[in-house]
Amino acid sequence: METFEEHYESLFNTLYRQMPGADLVLIDKAIHYAEEKHKFQKRKDGSPYIIHPLAVAQIVVEMGLDMDAILGALLHDCIEDTDASHDDIAKRFGDTAAELVEGVTKLTRADFSSTEEAQMENLRKMFMAMSKDIRVVLIKIADRLHNMRTMQYQSPEKQVKKCRETMDIYAPLAHRLGMQRIKWELEDIALRYLDPAGYENIMSTLSAHKEQDEAFMHTIQERIKNRLLDMGIHNKTYGRIKHVYSIYRKMNAQDKTLEELYDIYAFRVIVDSIPDCYNVLGHIHDLFNLVPGRFKDYISTPKPNMYQSLHTTVIGTQGIPFEVQIRTWEMHQTAEYGIAAHWKYKQGAGEGNEKDFEWVRRLLESQQDTDAEDYVNSLKIDMFDDEVFVFTPKGKIVSLPAGSTPIDFAYAIHSGVGNSLVGAKVNNRIINIDMPLKNGDIVEIITSKTAKGPSRDWLNICKSNQARTKIKQWFKKEKREENVAHGRSSFESEMRRIGLPLSITIDPEVGPQLLKKLCFDSWEDMYAAIGYGGLTAVKAVGRIRDDINRAMKLQANDKLVQGTTLKTEPESGKRINRHSVNGVIVEDIDSCMIKFAKCCTPVPGDAIVGFITKGFGVSVHRFDCPNTSDKENPRFAARWVRVRWANQDDQPFETTLELDCITREGLLLDLATTMTTSRVRVKEINGKDLPDGHSIFTVRFEVRNVEELESIRNKLLNIRDVIGSRRGQN
Ligand code: MN
Fold first, then answer.
1. pTM of the predicted model, to two decimals?
2. Average pLDDT over all residues of the chain
3. Which tens digit of pLDDT belongs to each residue from 461-470?
4. Alpha carbon of 632 to ligand 1 centroid (Å)
5. Beta bridge partners of 238
6. Pair type for strands 594-596 and 618-622
7. Which residues have their alpha-adjacent CB atom under 5 A from ion ligand 1?
8. How many whole angstroms from 80 Cα to the centroid of ligand 1?
9. In Å, how far are 240, 241, 285, 324, 388 from 216, measured between CA atoms?
10. What distance in angstroms lies between residue 52's CA and the mean position of ligand 1's atoms?
C-alpha cells in the first residue's frame, strides 16, 4: 500500500528539482488542509485519500504548471467530496486556486460518457468550453491520469466506463493540447481494460522480442550517435518502441500481426538548432536507405497542436524499417508537454528561449503583453463562444447556438417535443422557457398532449434556425385559417398605414399582377405566409407599393381621358386643349376630366388642389376647403394631386356665395339689383328664412377670377342687413 509519506516526499523532491522558487510552506499548508478535509475518505485500495491529490499535484508539477495550478491540484476534490467551500479555499489559498478547484469540480460533476460516436467531438468541445481557464483542463487531465494509473482497484464496470471516457475525451484532448507523453500513457492504460486480450498479445510479443529489440535499437542508436559526433553535431539520440496503443491501432488498421508490422521502432534525435535538424536528416538518409514517401517536414509546417519535428522512415541493417524524428530541444519540450510547456518555460528555461516557442507566440498573437498572467487570461477558451453544450436527462449531449433557450433545446430533440412543450426544467429546477441555457445544463422538457403548440413569440425568443424553421412549419401547417386571418389583418393595416386602397387587391386587372409580383397563387396563400411568419406584411406591401401607385394613376388617367374625350370633340379625336381642361392644369396627368367641387367652387386665383375621384375625374377644390383636410391622411395622400390654373382669364367660372342676412322684406331685390349693376351673370339666387330671424341666401354666379369675386362679395356685404358671407354652399 502506498503511503502519504512516500507521496509527500516524492512531490517535494520534484518541486525542489523543477520549481526552486515555489512557496513550499503554502503547498504544505494546502496538503494538510486537504488531508484534514479528506480524512474520513479512503482510496479504493484502502490507502488514505490524500495520496490522490498529492499524486495529481505531482503530475501537475511535472507538466510544469504554476503555483495556483499546484494548489488547485492538491485541493481539486475538496469542494466535490468534503465540506470545504470556494470562499474558504479562496481565503486561504487565493482566488485563482479556488477558481481552479471550482472549475475542476464542474467537470467532475458532468458526465462525459456517451456511446454515440457523433457525440464525441461535442463532448470534447463542451469539456473545453466548460473550463474558463486552460489550467482546469490540465488539472483534470492529471486527475484522470492518476485515476488511470490506479484503475486496477476499480470494479470491472467502472474500469470499462472510465477507460472508454479516457479514450473518447481525455486522450484526444491531451493530443489536441500537444501533450504526447500523457496521451500515450492514457491510451495504453485504457487499452489494457478495453481490450485486455489485444493488449496482452502485444505486450507478450514485445517482451518475447525484448532482447532482440534492445540490441537492434542499441546498434542503430550508436551508428547515428557516432556519425553525428564525427560531424560535430551535439545531440541526444535514443530509440524506443512505439506505444502500445499506436501499435494496436496499426495492427487493426492494416490487419497485420505485430511481426508483420512496419515500423514499430522510433528513434529520436534532439539537437540544438533547426539547421542541425536538416543536417541530421541528411546524415540519416546517408546512413540508411530511405523509404520513399514517408518523409514529413513538420518544422516548416507544424501540426495544429504546434507539434514540430522532421519525420523520416528508413531501413536498417537487418532490413527492419524504423522511423526517425528529428527536433530541437524546444520542439521536444512542446511535443512532450504541449500547452503546459509554456509554464515550464516560465519557471525553468532561460530567458532567451521565448522566441523559440513559436506556437506559444501564435497563441499570444493578439496579446501585446506576454506577461504570465495575461497569457493565462489569453488562454481562456473562447473558441466555442458561439456554442453552448447541454445534456438531455439521459446524458445525450446537444449543441446549440450560444444564448439558446429550452425552446431551442426542445426543437433540437424533435419537432414533436417542441410543439408540445409546456415547460422546462434545468438541473431539476423549473425555469422559464426563455431562459438562456449554460454549458453543462441538464435540460428536461415538460410536454403535454393538450399543449396548444408553439406561440408566435417563440420566433423571437429562440436562437437556433432549426427551432425557428420548425415553429414556422408548424404555423404553416396547423394554423392555416388563423394564419390567413392574422396575415390579412397585418397586411391590411400595413396597406392603410401606407395609404393604399385595399380594393386594389380584388381589382380584376391589377390584383393578379400584384400576386404574380409577390410570387403567390392566391391572396389567401399570401396572408397565410404572413401569418406564419414566412413573410412580413411590411415586406409584402413594400414589394407591390410602386405597382399599386402606378396602377392607380393609370386607372385615374384612363377614366379621366375617357371623360375628357366625351366632353371635347370625340369625332375629331383631337383634344382642343392638350394641357388645360376647364382652365385647370393637373400636374402629372396630361389630360383629364376636371370638375369644380361644389363645396368650395374655386375660381381662378384661388389656391387649388385636385382629388382623383373614382370615375369622375379630378375634382378641384380650394386649397383651404374643409373637405381637403384629409390631404395629409396617408390613406388618401396618393389621390391628391397638384393642380394649377391655366392662364385663361376670359373664361367664366361658376361660383357660389352664401350670405348671412337679417330677415327683411326687399332684401332679395337688393341682392339682385347689386348683382345686375355689377354686370355679373347670375345663375341662381335662393333664399331661406331661419326661425331665429335670420335668412340665408345662396347666390350662384359667374366670375373670371378671384379678384372679381372679391369685389362682388364686398358689394354684397355693403347691402344693409347682409352680415356675413361664405364661399361655397356647405
Ligand atoms: Mn480526483
1. 0.52
2. 81
3. 998 888 888 8
4. 76
5. 268
6. parallel
7. 77, 143
8. 9
9. 10, 11, 18, 14, 52
10. 7
